[in-house]
Input
Amino acid sequence: MARRLISSGSPFEAEFGYSRAVAAGPWCFVAGTTGYDYAAMAMPESAHEQARNALATISGALAEAGFAMSEVVRVQYTITAPELQAEIAPALREAFGTVRPAATMVVAGLVAPEMKVEIEVTAYRDGDG
Output
């Protein structure tokens, strides 16, 4: 099974030795992704915009690997405070409302204080079409 490494161009990938995504056979694993705007290297203040940015980065990584958001089967959301659920819910519904992947949401600290949301996904492409 061929293994393909996908980069989003983030300087953090080289610094910390990881790939944004790894595609292997019918699977694509996307690393935990925060809401940085990599063009501006800035983090939006709102959790909603952070979630939207993270999902856009994830969508781009999946597309580069030949996958679509509709093939996401598993999501892990990490938020820094329980009350952020309501703020990010519209972005999550927009991305996954019809896909309905299995999901887990945890509350935990992230590596930088401005980070409020991190999203990790796994996609699977069924060989039957």
Notes: The first helix runs from residue 11 to 16.
